[in-house]
């Protein structure tokens, strides 16, 4: 076991997969000599050279399209978005090409492609650098979507994503790169379609993902001190959603709170509510509570930025509101 930062866990995953398979390569802006904006590709250029750690121009649509073409020929590209918000410039390539080509070619092509990078609300990064694109991409057929949340799952999930024969959108939160955790010395992989039950409980199922995992844990730590017993599920897989794990939990707790950094309108929480109502309506004692970011561009002002996202106090209040209904 060795303690690693999340950015280094991601780097180790890429390094191991590049060493294992010469078809794996990385492309993106400033990933070579500079080592990436968050140092996920630090020192890899010196090890693998220009053709496998490929610095690109500022042209997301072009290099994403190139990566899709490379995947069609049998290579396994990893696209780093310097900020995932910039990949809106490549939305056409991701939706019309990456997501569809396996189907529209009648299965003649597979697209073993990973698109990864930082996103989410940081600390005063401004509206254009603070977007949460998971709901944008969730509607695209043919994609898998993963949101890592710990150094351990970041490494295991990225290794699995690189080996998957489908296009995977891999979300990393900009504020989680400096998390540290002990990682196994042996090689390991984690499934791309499974949620994690972070804490087992009996009263309310709290569903979350990415950075909000830690806001939920803070809230639950305080609730446990008061004698409550919540259950926490980290979705991890945003597409497909691991609805089986959620159903099992809801049948036990009969109440659900969703905590997300995504926007409320059309967000991941909206899809979760639909699936929970489809599968667990008769098991619910109360309507699902959804705690989401406000439907506005993220302000640059620090206090206003903080006010747009959910914090532990709001989670505690919502939990106690649900518990009051049981009395």
Automatic annotation (TrEMBL):
<keyword id="KW-0786">Thiamine pyrophosphate</keyword>
<dbReference type="InterPro" id="IPR009014">
    <property type="entry name" value="Transketo_C/PFOR_II"/>
</dbReference>
<protein>
    <recommendedName>
        <fullName>Pyruvate dehydrogenase E1 component subunit beta</fullName>
    </recommendedName>
</protein>
<comment type="function">
    <text>The pyruvate dehydrogenase complex catalyzes the overall conversion of pyruvate to acetyl-CoA and CO(2). It contains multiple copies of three enzymatic components: pyruvate dehydrogenase (E1), dihydrolipoamide acetyltransferase (E2) and lipoamide dehydrogenase (E3).</text>
</comment>
<keyword id="KW-0670">Pyruvate</keyword>
<keyword id="KW-0934">Plastid</keyword>
<dbReference type="Pfam" id="PF02779">
    <property type="entry name" value="Transket_pyr"/>
</dbReference>
<keyword id="KW-0560">Oxidoreductase</keyword>
<dbReference type="GO" id="GO:0004739">
    <property type="term" value="F:pyruvate dehydrogenase (acetyl-transferring) activity"/>
</dbReference>
<dbReference type="Pfam" id="PF02780">
    <property type="entry name" value="Transketolase_C"/>
</dbReference>
<dbReference type="InterPro" id="IPR029061">
    <property type="entry name" value="THDP-binding"/>
</dbReference>
<comment type="subunit">
    <text>Heterodimer of an alpha and a beta chain.</text>
</comment>
<keyword id="KW-0630">Potassium</keyword>
<feature type="domain" description="Transketolase-like pyrimidine-binding">
    <location>
        <begin position="4"/>
        <end position="179"/>
    </location>
</feature>
<dbReference type="GO" id="GO:0046872">
    <property type="term" value="F:metal ion binding"/>
</dbReference>
<dbReference type="InterPro" id="IPR033248">
    <property type="entry name" value="Transketolase_C"/>
</dbReference>
<keyword id="KW-0479">Metal-binding</keyword>
<dbReference type="InterPro" id="IPR005475">
    <property type="entry name" value="Transketolase-like_Pyr-bd"/>
</dbReference>
